[in-house]
Design a protein that fits this description.
Structural class: mainly alpha
Radius of gyration: 19 Å
Largest sheet: none
Number of strands: 0
Length: about 210
Amino acid sequence: LVVGDAAGTADEAMRVETLARERGDRRIAYEAGRPRAQGLGEIGRAAEALAVLESIDPPDDDARTLLGAQIAAHRPSEAAARAEQLAPALAKVRPTTARRARYTLALALQRAGRFPGAIAMLDPLLTELRSGRPTFLAGAVLQLRAHLALESGAIEECRRLLDRIEPFAAGSSWLGPLVAAQRIDARMAAGELGADLDVAVETLDARGR
């Protein structure tokens, strides 16, 4: 795949997917179809991305679960129904699959404005993360959960979650600036930012460089 080039990724993945389908290889077609859809989504071709996902024939239950979660992310209005539909599968698939699916479904529910459902989808992962090593997914889960806490008015909970993210954010080009921005949002929500706002923004700019 083409790193840093969403259009190139979509084109290369389509080539691989087409070959795999011609050969009847469902596994490779699935593995190529998902990044193809992601690449299309990143360049603003959401309808095509969804069509690609819905055309994939998943080779097993793990693939079917991840695919269902990814489709839910493209159809937020159906997020709650899809989350309910996939709930039994989350207890049966591999733990790594369940974690990825839960995070993707939580994103879909958050986009649909269903914060309690998104929180319920993520909370089982928070317990697992307490003893786990820092990973991209772990940082993403904590960041989304902190965002949901803030959106729900739980400012102190948001801050506690942001404190837990620090080991994951160190040296991260995407997570560090998000954490800094969320800390500013939490202070604003608590009415703590006044004359300090310029300093806070300067700190955010520094984290984003």
